[in-house]
């Protein structure tokens, strides 16, 4: 076992946090899993299951549930696995407990509302003594928890650090690719969630497989334009955290963002389960950033118009179909 990353902290005991805790344990790490609900964490420690967020999955023996962030003090690296819009609050609470220079890897896919900051930028402000990175890619918690083959990207500005973390967290069923294109990885994760809502609407309206394929292709063109404008590398955008995640999230109701769009397309109502869809919170800031930078993102703009109530779904679809014909770019 690598002595450098012997002990991994996971902050956030939802489905994805629990799955990543098990993945790290599968890679031979000792894992501390934190959740803010003390009663839930004590129950998890006793029965070794997270029945609320990931039912049917047993916690690995080396995962220790904790309700105090102080448990992160002796961790060699921390995965921050909380929603994008909660990242600043939780990271700020985490910061006093960390040793200087501890890698903190955000696993959220979004852009902070109000500041238009990407997730590693939020970490840099909230945890200034930490070394920020991001983990993202085509992955569902249930698949990772079950040990099904999954590949994602972990990026940090320090390429050697990213490589070392991938080696520490990877296993035969959970493959990590390392990168130093932090911005590219976080843009892919944020933008694809918004586009997945549009894909769900196409499915809910039963517009057909041809329309779904066109939506993914033109959505990727939007993601790429946004990424290039903000410094992402092309190979990152066409990789796991960009195109790979877009394809997965636009293809199945297992994606919360697709499920949200599916419900809107079928019933004009939000799904009844109330599960968080990050794209619904990212849409407005993504579109505002694109407009300020002069980036054409008609699909993302249509999603934002529907979510804000400025347009109904028929108006949004009509606006997209009525756009002037142009060369493919």
Describe this structure in words.
The protein has 329 residues and is of the alpha/beta class. It has two domains: 7-180, NAD(P)-binding Rossmann-like Domain (Rossmann fold); 190-321, Orthogonal Bundle (N-(1-d-carboxylethyl)-l-norvaline Dehydrogenase, domain 2). It contains 14 helices and ten strands. The strands form two sheets. An eight-stranded mixed β-sheet has the order 5-2-1-6-7-8-9-10, sandwiched between helices. Helix 7 (182-204) packs parallel to helix 10, helix 12 crosses helix 13 and helix 13 (298-308) runs antiparallel to helix 14. The radius of gyration is 19 Å and the shape is globular. The model has no long low-confidence stretch (mean pLDDT 96).
CATH class of the largest domain: Alpha Beta
The coarse overall form would be globular
Task: Report the mean per-residue pLDDT as an integer.
Answer: 96
Enumerate the spans where pLDDT stays under 50 for 5 or more consecutive residues: none
- Report the major sheet: 8 strands, mixed
Jot down its keywords:
single chain; 2 domains; 329 residues; two-stranded antiparallel sheet; 14 helices; 15% strand; globular; Rossmann fold; alpha/beta; 8-stranded mixed sheet; N-(1-d-carboxylethyl)-l-norvaline Dehydrogenase, domain 2
